[in-house]
Each structure stands twice: as C-alpha cells, then as structure tokens.
Amino acid sequence: MIKNAGPKYQIFNPQDETCPICVGLNHIYRTNSFQNEMKVPEAVGEGYCRRIVVKPSMRISISDMTFHERMTMGERQGSSLYSLAFCLGEGFLWRVEGNPKREYGIACGESCIFNRDQGISISSYDPGSRFLGICVEFDFDIITSFMQHREKDQAHNRLFTGSNFLYNGKISPAIRLILNEMMNCRYREQLKRIYLEGKILELIAVYLDETVFEDEAMSSAGEVSAYDREALYKARRILDENLVAPPTIGKLAKLIYLNEYKLKTGFKELFGMPVHAYIIDKRLELARLLIEDKKLKVTEAALLVGYNDLSYFAEKFRRKYGVNPSKYSKNI
Q1: Among 111, 156, 238, 330, which one is least packed by beta carbons within 10 Å?
Q2: Is the pTM above the cut of 0.85?
Q3: Is the pLDDT of residue 177 over 50?
Q4: Is the Cβ–Cβ distance between 123 and 85 less than 8 Å?
C-alpha cells in the first residue's frame, strides 16, 4: 500500500481478536508488493482474497470467500482514495460508526462508489453464502480529470461533494466484461501492471458514462420533456430485461405510454442510437460475456442472445469487435 497507509487501515473481528481471516487480510493490505493473496483456512471456510497494488493511487481487491459460521469484520479506514465495488456473489450490509450511524447495502449484480475515509465500518457475512466481488481503489483526481474532459463540472460538484456513499446501481454487461478481463488477466509482472492500469481507467470511464454522464444527458436533453425522458429510460430497462425477445416498437411504445415517433426520436437523442441498434449492441455484449466468462460455444451464445442465423451473428460480432466470434473464442 502507499506510504503511511498501513497504520491507518485495520481489519478486525470485534468478537475474536485472533481471527485468522483478519490477520491474513491485514497482512496483504499492508504490504508494498505488487500482488498478494490470502487463502481462507479450511477450518474457517474456503476461498481467497487477492490484493494487487497497480500503483500507490490504484489498487484492486478480488474476493471469493465462503465461511462455515457467521463472520463479522470491521474496517478502520483512513484512506483518501475512493472505492468502486462490484458484488458478484451474495449481497451484504455494512454499518458505518458515528453520530449518526449509517447503514448501506449492496445486492448481487450491483455496484457502488464511496469514499474510503469513513472511519470504522462493520459488516457481517452469513454462513454458507459465497461472497464474490471486486473492489477498485483510485485517486479522486482520475474522476476529476474525466469530468473536466467531458466538461461536466456541475455534475462533479453535485454528485461528489459532501457525501461518502455516492452511487448504487446495477452492473451492466459492458462493466461485467471489463471485470471478467481484470479478474482473469493472463499477463504477469510489469505487463500485468500496465494491462490492469488500462483496465481500471476503462472501467471508471464506462462506469461514469453509464451513471453520472447518463444523468446529465437526461437533464440536458432540452427537447425531450421530463415525462418523455422518464418513459424512455423505462423503455431502455424493458429492452435490457428482454434482449432475447424484445417487444416490437409498437408494443414498447404502448408499454411506456408514448407514441412510436416520440419513442424512436427520443430514444436516439438520449442514448445515441436507434432502438434496433441498441438491441443489437447489447446482445453482442451479452454474447461476448457468455463466450468469455461462461465458456459457451459460439453457437450456444448466439442462440441464447436471440440469433438463429449464425452468419448474421458473426457479421455483427466482427463489425463490433473486429474479429470473428470463432477466432475470439479460440484466443480466450
């Protein structure tokens, strides 16, 4: 970790001062080496926690742990870094001590971004539940740089001032792909460090684009009324949940109580592409995730995302990713 960070950070079990999990986590969190991993003792559970220090202002923690008995752990934090956390396993709650006490939660498939300088936080983990996730710590200057590049200073001031817990939302297929690439990075040493630094920047950029900048786009689309904007975001949620068999334009328009013209023009203005193109784009992202993460065959992935014509699927995949899906699958 960065200089002087060790004494400020401590993981502890309020019920067991000699907790082996806390001892192991404190060891890997207080070292300066590039990568360290703690294995969960068999007597306690199974799994691991991996800590990667890409550079002092950029770190990654990957956890995949299951405990035999209920586990309570606290964190004493004093870091100036921000954290972007993604829950891929069971959700959990945590409490931040203070006056008043604050409680937060994250469910499976959700993400959150928060300031690590929160003092003491306490969380509990149920026995038999798999806690799988990845947390990226980074300097706030990275967000400031993205904001300034996009000329979003007002969004910066509104969303990132005076708040420890900043945002909680769903993990999109695009984000999930980046996380999968980070968690399964096949490079080593310096090449791995360079690769992960690039992936962290990509992750933050996509995350901000899907959350902060999306909110700004929603409020700055002057020609789209507030009612229509809300309806169009509902339309996108419906499409995201029904990519394999999406409703027709006519049916979608009825579901959101807009006419077809407003749906078509408003959707393109807010999201930068027509409805049909959006469906194709998201299907391809999901197909790539199934091929890469779930190790499905190209044919299986294509069918699962709604493509019966494999040559048409291959053409669209190649146009988006610059490589045939079969070749992509072999290179994983």
Answers
A1: 330
A2: no
A3: yes
A4: no
